[in-house]
């Protein structure tokens, strides 16, 4: 395996900080680790003796379990906590917490309400800080998404992906970022009120370099001809007060059989999960033959391993 030494010791907060070659390296390593996994090589000593601290402000299934299993299978010790179990819950600052735990552990994975909390943590911790989800981005998720598309489409280049629903959510943002880095066409199809703020212009340089195309639209017809139709929940964690309004606004953007028919038989269906069945997606789509959501979920394990190895090995 080719080793990109520049990854060692880095934070993994946003893919905007990573080059196209570095992202392709992480994906290649993920694919290699998955192959080894199915050949029976599930456990390794490569990170034995190291410790991962996970701090989760929000509930989690895929991110928490995949990181925990990935770290354990690589020989790491894992500590899971929420702010109420730490002095963070009693008013200790993020900076002071980061300064302390930095002297104990080898990496910190944090799932936070505010992206700025990750920035603050990384400012005061020398060890790598991994974004396990913030309100702005979810880089671990889209790394697994890219691996899934590589597997089912046989390529990373020239992918056309339509994200349907809340265009200003963390997964939509991260899909735009990885799309710009890999030269994809990413179509954000969303009510105008929920179009992604600022991200398109932030990605102009990467898009120009790779030939990527970021399209923002409110027309569901723009799913036609894509390789993948992607959606996420309409009401993200922390937005429960807006639930009824959001359900009304997003109803025309439900991914159902009609939408998948517009996209075409070549299109796979993707969802980061958990899904609110009957809202953003119907049962016949998520459980149907075009769905790759369970492959996406599994690939969270293999890409988590790749990130941990690259930052710590």
TrEMBL record:
The name this protein goes by in its record: Ornithine carbamoyltransferase
CC annotations in GO: cytoplasm
Family of this protein: Belongs to the aspartate/ornithine carbamoyltransferase superfamily. OTCase family.
Keywords: Cytoplasm, Transferase
Matching InterPro entries: Asp/Orn_carbamoyltranf_P-bd (IPR006132), Asp/Orn_carbamoylTrfase (IPR006130), Asp/Orn_carbamoylTrfase_sf (IPR036901), Asp_carbamoyltransf_Asp/Orn-bd (IPR006131), Orn/put_carbamltrans (IPR002292), OTCase_ArgI (IPR024904)
Catalytic reactions of this protein: carbamoyl phosphate + L-ornithine = L-citrulline + phosphate + H(+)
Keyword set includes tRNA-binding: no
The species this protein was found in: Vulcanisaeta distributa (strain DSM 14429 / JCM 11212 / NBRC 100878 / IC-017)
UniProt-annotated binding residues for carbamoyl phosphate: 60-63, 87, 111, 138-141, 272-273, 300
Domain spans labelled Aspartate/ornithine carbamoyltransferase Asp/Orn-binding: 157-310
């Amino acid at each position: 395996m080719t080793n990109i030494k520049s990854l060692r010791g880095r934070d993994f907060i946003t893919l905007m900080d990573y080059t196209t070659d570095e992202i392709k390296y992480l994906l290649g390593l993920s694919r290699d680790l998955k192959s080894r996994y199915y050949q029976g090589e599930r456990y390794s000593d490569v990170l034995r003796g190291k410790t991962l601290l996970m701090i989760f402000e929000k509930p989690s299934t895929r991110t928490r379990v995949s990181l925990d299993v990935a770290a354990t299978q690589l020989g790491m010790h894992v500590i899971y906590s929420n702010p109420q179990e730490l002095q963070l819950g009693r008013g200790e600052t993020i900076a002071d917490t980061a300064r302390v735990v930095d002297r104990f552990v080898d990496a910190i994975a944090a799932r936070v309400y505010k992206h700025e909390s990750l920035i603050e943590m990384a400012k005061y911790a020398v060890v790598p800080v991994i974004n396990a989800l913030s309100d702005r981005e979810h880089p671990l998720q889209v790394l697994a998404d890219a691996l899934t598309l590589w597997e089912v489409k046989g390529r990373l280049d020239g992918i056309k992906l339509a994200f349907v629903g809340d265009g200003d959510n963390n997964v939509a943002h991260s899909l735009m970022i990885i799309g710009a880095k890999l030269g994809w066409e990413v179509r954000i199809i969303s009510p105008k009120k929920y179009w992604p703020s600022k991200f398109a212009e932030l990605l102009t340089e990467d898009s120009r370099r790779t030939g990527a195309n970021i399209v923002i639209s409110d027309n569901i017809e723009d799913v036609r001809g894509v390789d993948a139709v992607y959606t996420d929940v309409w009401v993200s964690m922390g937005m429960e007060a807006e639930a009824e309004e959001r359900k009304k606004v997003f109803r025309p953007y439900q991914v159902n059989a009609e939408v998948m028919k517009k996209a075409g038989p070549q299109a796979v269906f993707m969802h980061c999960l958990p899904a609110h069945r009957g809202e953003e997606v119907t049962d016949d789509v998520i459980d149907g033959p075009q769905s790759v959501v369970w492959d996406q979920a599994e690939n969270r394990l293999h890409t988590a391993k790749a990130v941990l190895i690259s930052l710590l090995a």
